[in-house]
Design the sequence.
């Protein structure tokens, strides 16, 4: 039998466990060109929630469907010469133990020591941190790198890569507990709580040589404050603007573009695909740093298919540190 | 005898002709290491006014002083082996027919067919346009280049250089008369009046392929509107933020940094000195384009030392088109 998590009812307001139910179905059978895959690790993302609100860049999830997900899977049975049993693939699938997928919709992955790393340090999070910091921010050893959302899945790697390159790494996060974790567990030189009324003063003290690269995940008021601390010819890596996404009346930093003119700054946006040609370099560098112990892999893994609903609900409430995923089955030996 | 324009009284509010008086003084005599120079062309800049308000990056002008200026001069008599009579130099001097200057404070200039060009197309204005557009904006033939303050001394060259490179050049200026001049005299493909209530719609129509490079001299609301029209991977050359300089409550574009993230834009500030190593290339390219008739030199030359006060007052009221200067004596043969 095959367990699936079904969307019982589409949420109108807040998502709750009652919107899901765990059901048993017959084992699916692959047709020509298809494969039967076993789910190993499912990625849990804020975007999952938006799929329940209607069609986005992909098909909407409907009531009665198994919940959609991006996952790492093992091929169990293949009716395609593109894939063989035992292959590890990344694919769009559903919250289930097993599923049938078209072989063309599966990307075969390299073998690594721990599969979860393909969703964190060697996945989108680590590659975004690497390409954004190195390709766009271009820090030089000795420079100061500041990063917001420093306890997030991208920000936590940005600071660690900066340290590994010989830069001073300073984080910004929400609340004293997260800040302590960024300092103590991830090894940043400092981490500042943006909710603290003394934030601006603390920022100056933490960056006595000014800021050379600001890796910005949030935009808004924090960006405005940071711009005053940027050094001449500094770089702002524009990775996200979380603070503005949910606002009815977004406010622009009042010192833009003035500070860009006066300090000759560069602000630049990017997406990780822009640097696909450099992915090989990124993975090699990240693997070396992990092997040398210079980068600590941090992941937020929830065990068990049955816990996927609460893992998603918790993520939407911001209770994760690092990349959240659900382990459905152990890594194959 | 030597005519000088003296600052009779420092202005408290608006500058008027009564703040100046034309006086005759004895011809000055150079000492060891000094030269006697004859003023040919004086640069008239908004910054001149700020020198009357107290010390800035330079000494303040006081009541009773001859008004300070940047000028091109001819060496008449030299007591330094650095310079010889007949040399053309750029120097800080005063509003006068003649002055004595330290030879070390004079920069010897190459000979060109028309000296005024060293203050416009081959001076700060032309070099700022060239380095900002080419070094920072990096347009490719066929792309659309948009520039604000298009009737200004920098903006007018930006659009002409863009055209010479095979780009579509669209300007933004204040009022229908200036816009017509930018189109008809400078040869831009189009020029839009930002005061027109239909400005945003006109902008979309004038840039049917979107905007690839925006050369921004103004910041503020115009920047906000332009950002919506930028193409993915577009570049914003941040040269100035005129609209914000005089404002008690500056407002930031509300779509920053959101648009930079979503469209993967690059916004970058610069000053002309950052590209000093490329000045030789800039001058060679500009001279070729002028010789080929692809770039039209436009200057705003006021004749006569006695008209310097009204030239400055008019500039502060925005009645110039292109680089304003005062001709005190004709170019030497």
Sequence:
């Amino acid at each position: 039998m095959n367990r699936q998590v079904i969307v019982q009812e589409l949420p109108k307001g807040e998502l709750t466990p009652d919107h899901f139910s765990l059901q048993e179905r017959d084992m699916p059978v692959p047709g020509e060109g298809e494969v039967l895959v076993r789910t190993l690790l499912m990625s849990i993302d804020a975007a999952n929630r938006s799929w329940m609100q209607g069609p986005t860049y992909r098909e909407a999830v409907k009531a009665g469907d198994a919940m959609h997900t991006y996952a790492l899977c093992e091929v169990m049975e293949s009716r395609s010469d593109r894939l063989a049993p035992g292959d590890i693939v990344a694919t769009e699938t559903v919250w289930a133990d097993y599923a049938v997928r078209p072989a063309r919709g599966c990307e075969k992955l390299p073998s690594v020591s721990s599969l979860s790393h393909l969703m964190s340090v060697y996945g989108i999070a680590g590659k975004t941190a690497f390409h954004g910091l190195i390709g766009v921010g271009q820090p030089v050893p000795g420079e100061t790198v500041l990063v917001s959302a420093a306890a997030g899945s991208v920000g936590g790697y940005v600071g660690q890569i900066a340290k590994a390159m010989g830069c001073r790494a300073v984080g910004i996060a929400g609340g004293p507990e997260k800040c302590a974790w960024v300092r103590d567990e991830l090894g940043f030189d400092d981490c500042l709580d943006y909710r603290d009324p003394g934030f601006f003063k603390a920022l100056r003290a933490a960056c006595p040589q000014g800021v050379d690269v600001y890796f910005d995940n949030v935009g808004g008021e924090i960006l405005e404050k940071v711009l005053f601390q940027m050094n001449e010819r500094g770089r702002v890596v524009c990775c996200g603007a979380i603070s503005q996404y949910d606002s009815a009346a977004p406010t622009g930093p009042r010192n833009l573009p003035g500070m860009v003119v006066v300090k000759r700054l560069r602000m630049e946006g990017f997406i990780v695909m822009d640097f696909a040609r450099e992915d090989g370099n990124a993975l090699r560098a990240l693997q070396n740093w992990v092997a040398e112990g210079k980068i600590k892999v941090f992941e937020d893994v929830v065990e068990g298919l049955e816990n996927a609903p609460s893992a998603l609900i918790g993520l939407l409430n911001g209770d994760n540190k690092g990349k959240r995923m659900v382990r459905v089955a152990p890594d194959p030996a």
